[in-house]
Each structure stands twice: as structure tokens, then as C-alpha cells.
Design brief:
Number of helices: 13
Helix content: over 70%
Shape: globular
Strand content: under 5%
Number of domains: 2
Distance between the termini: 32 Å
Structural class: mainly alpha
CATH architecture of the largest domain: Orthogonal Bundle
CATH superfamily of the largest domain: MetI-like
Largest sheet: none
CATH class of the largest domain: Mainly Alpha
């Protein structure tokens, strides 16, 4: 008996394959061309490096002509601290908004939804003025504060939806046993929303790591540059060192790829949880 293959399902799979190619294609091109000579990059950008075209000159220039290690540490510090604060504050705020009913609960939830719809870059001038008044320009603290504000609305929305799916009987039983609200949150809620936390981590980590806009505005000084901003020194108005640019991008992509592979299992669980009840 021949399987019943619907045309709609075939169209969906074709669309997914095309999207996968569009998403992975640029990353593959960067990784391939990072190990090729400048001539080979432009003559055969889709070809793999061979014995004649293979070179690591781009990586040599990155480590000798720039403070890439410092840029990497700055990006890692900003990303890790921002991510930790977003998950911690977002989880507590989602728990408060979903568990307790108080005056202004709906207004706060609507305010968070507006934070998702309105890009934070629209307030760049006001943010810069505020950071100048607080004397936080050219500090990593300014970037952390901006990224936390940027990531909290989505984190609260995702975590709140997951917390609502947790049976209320678990919380009520813990309260009957005299367990405090803090213990309920730390020992019951957080372990059960691990897939949601992984989802928030992936969706939040990538934009923070790849951002160029706010590092360029708030922390362009020496010693505070992130990876994306440090790469710009190899891009000139008339001459661009493409070997160094591609090598820098490869080194910047590697941590994100590794972390994504580690969290991918939890990400899928987080995206599909609640689809079937």
C-alpha cells in the first residue's frame, strides 16, 4: 500500500529545506573561505580549500594585529551576565505575573508585550543621553543594562506561558506543607521550566553576541570593544582584509554554534511543549 503523501506536506518540507539553505549557507561560506587565500576567495568562493589554496594567514593577522582575545572576553562577559540577569529576573517576574493577581497585573503584562513589538533601537538617542548622565559610556555595564531591558519582555512572555502549564496542585501541596514561596519557586518552578529557560537562552544569546549597534554607540573605546566591533578594524574604506575578516567571523561564530548544539535538545522541547495537551 502506497503511503498517502499530501502536496501540502511536500510544500512545507520544500520551504523548510530552502530556509535551512538560506540560514546555513552564509555560515558555511564563512567557514570555507576563512581557510583560503584571497585570490581563491574571489575566484572560487564555493570551493573547498585544497593544498594550493589553503592558508591560515587570516587567523595569524587576527591574533597579531588586534586584541581579539580581549574582544572575545568582553563579548563573553556581556553575554553571560546579560543572559543570567534576563533569566533570573524574567523567571521571577513571570512567576509573579502568572501566580499572583493584583491591581495592575494586566497593565504590566501589556507593557511587556509592547516591549516585544517596539524595537529598543528606536530609543538609541535617549539611551545614550541617559548613559552619559550616569557616566556609563565606554563601559560594559551600559551594554548589560541595555541587553537586559531588551531581552526581558520576551523572556517573561515565554517563561510565563510555561509556568501557567504547571499544575497548581503542586504549588498548593507545597504550601500546605509549609514551604515558603521562595522555596517553591527555586525547587519546583525552576526545574520544571528548564526547557523554557533554554529557549530563552538561545533566543537571547544570539542577538546579544551578534549586536553591533549598541557596542558602536555605547562602548566604542579601546579595551571595551566586543568581537563584532573589533572586526570592523579590518574593513577599510578602500581596502578590506577579507582573510582577517572571515577568520574573525569564524572565531566569533564558533562559540554560538557550540552552545546552540548543546542547547538544541532543550530548545526543541521548549518550542514544542504545550503543543499537545
Amino acid at each position: 500500500m502506497r503511503p498517502n503523501i499530501r502536496p501540502g506536506r511536500i510544500a512545507v518540507h520544500i520551504a523548510l529545506v530552502l530556509y535551512t539553505i538560506l540560514a546555513i549557507g552564509p555560515i558555511a561560506l564563512i567557514l570555507i573561505n576563512a581557510f583560503k587565500t584571497r585570490r581563491a576567495i574571489f575566484s572560487d568562493p564555493l570551493g573547498f580549500p585544497d593544498a594550493r589554496t589553503f592558508t591560515t594567514i587570516g587567523f595569524d593577522q587576527v591574533f597579531t594585529k588586534s586584541d581579539f582575545g580581549l574582544y572575545f572576553v568582553n563579548s563573553l562577559t556581556v553575554t553571560v551576565v546579560s543572559l543570567g540577569l534576563i533569566i533570573l529576573i524574567g523567571a521571577m517576574a513571570a512567576w509573579a505575573l502568572t501566580e499572583y493577581r493584583f491591581r495592575g497585573n494586566t497593565i504590566i503584562a501589556l507593557y511587556m508585550a509592547i516591549g516585544i513589538m517596539v524595537p529598543i533601537r528606536l530609543g538609541s538617542v535617549s539611551i545614550l543621553r541617559m548613559m552619559v548622565e550616569l557616566n556609563l559610556v565606554n563601559t560594559l555595564t551600559a551594554l548589560v543594562l541595555v541587553y537586559v531591558a531588551q531581552g526581558l519582555p520576551l523572556a517573561i512572555l515565554i517563561l510565563g506561558e510555561f509556568i501557567q502549564q504547571i499544575p497548581r496542585d503542586l504549588r498548593d501541596a507545597a504550601r500546605c506543607d509549609g514551604v515558603s514561596e521562595y522555596r517553591i519557586f527555586a525547587s519546583i518552578i525552576l526545574p520544571l521550566i528548564t526547557p523554557a529557560i533554554a529557549t530563552v537562552a538561545v533566543f537571547t544569546m544570539v542577538p546579544i553576541w551578534n549586536d553591533l549597534w549598541f557596542p558602536l554607540i555605547l562602548a566604542p573605546g579601546d579595551g571595551k570593544q566586543t568581537v563584532t566591533l573589533g572586526v570592523q578594524q579590518f574593513i577599510g574604506q578602500y581596502v578590506t582584509d577579507w582573510n582577517a575578516v572571515l577568520a574573525s567571523l569564524t572565531l566569533a561564530i564558533a562559540p554560538i554554534l557550540v552552545l546552540y548544539l548543546l542547547f538544541s535538545r532543550y530548545l526543541v522541547r521548549g518550542l514544542t511543549a504545550g503543543a499537545v495537551k
